[in-house]
Design a protein that fits this description.
2 domains; 271 residues; Rossmann fold; alpha/beta; five-stranded parallel sheet
Length: 271
């Protein structure tokens, strides 16, 4: 009985808190929000920001991490982050979305460094195609970093880059943002544009910007994160050689042109 009373009291206090926040803030958004990222394009960063926003305003937030099949939350929701940018648009309506991409060459470099030491479960599953080795074991079996980059390019990062290339960039309900622009948004002008586009009420924008700043690396307030090695752009210039450019073009053709990172398929390594 005491336990039941304690649970009831806890529920009433939580409900009262939600009601108080609704009364204090009013409705902060009239549509649902979709956040589409890809591996190594700021997924953890966006999850931290939008989870904090949801917590502050008592919004219902789902953050998918690593489950490609989770493409639409059941029931009502306010915010949904999908880290492969897979959405069940047939069952979604009244939404505004944010889609983040990153230079595919930097995805290869960042992914290569990350996958050599990450503890993510999928990296430690024995795989037949690698002769019984895990992804991480296979990656680390190469003594040359050049060979590691080729392996990463042909495997995990290949799937990410192909997903970015196949995304529908003509969906007017999504704002398209480059990771490279966002990590330099110290004045939060781009974040302000994003929050406006996503439909948040003007009166809550200042609070959202404070949350975004506090959760961003450039604030100096983010503690060491195992998912973040550097975060800087154009890392590929330090690591790509001619063999990488040749293999990259063979695998991904004109992806750099389509994503507006280059004007030509080849020759960018010399520049």
């Amino acid at each position: 009985m005491k336990s039941l009373l304690k649970q009831s009291r806890s529920f009433l206090l939580k409900s009262r808190g939600i009601i108080n926040k609704v009364l204090a803030f009013g409705k902060v958004i009239d549509n649902s929000v979709l956040i589409g990222t890809h591996h190594k394009t700021g997924t953890v960063w966006m999850a931290n920001i939008f989870n904090s926003i949801a917590s502050y305003y008592d919004l219902k937030c789902y953050a998918n991490r690593g489950n490609k099949s989770f493409i639409c939350p059941s029931g009502n929701f306010d915010i949904f982050l999908q880290d492969h940018s897979f959405f069940d648009f047939d069952n979604l309506s009244n939404y505004k979305g944010l889609h983040i991409i990153r230079d595919p060459r930097d995805i290869v470099v960042s992914g290569c460094f990350y996958h050599t030491k990450s503890s993510e479960k999928w990296l430690h599953l024995k795989r037949e195609e690698f002769g019984g080795l895990t992804y991480q074991e296979k990656l680390n079996s190469y003594s040359s970093f050049d060979d590691k980059l080729i392996f990463e390019m042909e495997n995990s990062s290949r799937n990410v880059i192909q997903d970015m290339k196949s995304w529908n960039y003509d969906n007017s309900d999504f704002i398209e943002i480059k990771y490279e622009d966002l990590i330099q948004d110290i004045d939060l002008n781009l974040f302000r544009e994003i929050f406006h586009f996503l439909g948040f009420k003007e009166r809550v924008i200042p609070r959202l910007l404070k949350i975004a700043y506090r959760k961003s690396l450039f604030s100096g307030q983010v503690s060491n994160n195992k998912h973040i090695r550097s975060g800087k752009n154009q890392q590929w210039k330090e690591h790509f050689q001619a063999i990488h450019e040749e293999r990259f073009v063979a695998l991904f053709d004109d992806v750099l042109i389509k994503l507006n990172y280059e004007e030509t398929k080849t020759g960018w390594l010399d520049r």
